[in-house]
């Protein structure tokens, strides 16, 4: 007669628990190595002003140079962000994964229109609405 091993319910439960623990362990390690979404958004939010504002010359996306706004560059960025495809390309150029919207305010917190006759308040996602109170 041949000897045979039978699988009992206890062995199956133990194997299942072992597999779940191993998967959970690797999942936790994987999640801890990825940056938090809030941290990533904060990082992107700090990167955009650095790209658009410069104290030197020669930057491709510089819209504010030595405390002076380059109106031509702002108009160019507004035009790029008007279409969905242009907006997506602008996000790639700026190195942004999330949605963004850039607007300007004076020292008192009042919104400065980029083009008041057209009602253009800012640059970025068309899903953002800004109202003056």
Query: On the 0-100 scale, what is the average pLDDT?
Result: 76
| Count of alpha/pi helices | 4
Distance between the termini: 90 Å
Helix content: 40-55%
Structural class given helices, strands, pairing? alpha+beta
Radius of gyration: 26 Å
Structure summarized in a few sentences:
The protein has 133 residues and is α+β, with helices and mostly antiparallel strands. The chain has helices spanning 9-33, 37-52, 71-82, 84-94, and strands at residues 53-54, 64-65, 68-69, 101-105, 111-112, 122-124. The protein has a domain at 37-124.
Descriptive notes:
- This protein has 133 residues and is of the alpha+beta class.
- The chain has a domain of 88 residues.
- It is built from four helices and six strands.
- The strands form two sheets. It has a three-stranded mixed beta sheet with strand order 1-2-3. Strands 5-4-6 form a three-stranded antiparallel beta sheet.
- A hairpin with a 2-residue loop joins β2 and β3.
- α3 crosses α4.
- The radius of gyration is 26 Å and the shape is elongated.
Secondary-structure topology with pairs:
Blueprint: H1 9-33, H2 37-52, E1 53-54, E2 64-65, E3 68-69, H3 71-82, H4 84-94, E4 101-105, E5 111-112, E6 122-124
Parallel strand pairs: 1-2
Antiparallel strand pairs: 2-3, 4-5, 4-6
């Amino acid at each position: 007669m041949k000897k045979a091993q039978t699988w009992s319910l206890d062995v199956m439960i133990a194997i299942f628990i072992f597999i779940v623990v191993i998967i959970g362990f690797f999942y936790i390690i994987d999640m801890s190595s990825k940056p938090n979404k809030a941290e990533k958004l904060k990082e992107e939010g700090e990167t955009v002003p650095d790209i658009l504002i410069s104290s030197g010359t020669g930057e491709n996306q510089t819209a504010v140079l030595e405390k002076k706004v380059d109106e031509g560059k702002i108009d160019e960025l507004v035009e790029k962000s008007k279409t969905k495809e242009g907006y997506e390309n602008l996000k790639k150029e700026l190195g942004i994964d999330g949605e963004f919207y850039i607007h300007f305010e004076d020292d008192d917190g009042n919104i400065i229109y980029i083009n008041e006759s057209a009602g253009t308040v800012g640059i970025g996602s068309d899903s953002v609405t800004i109202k003056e109170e």
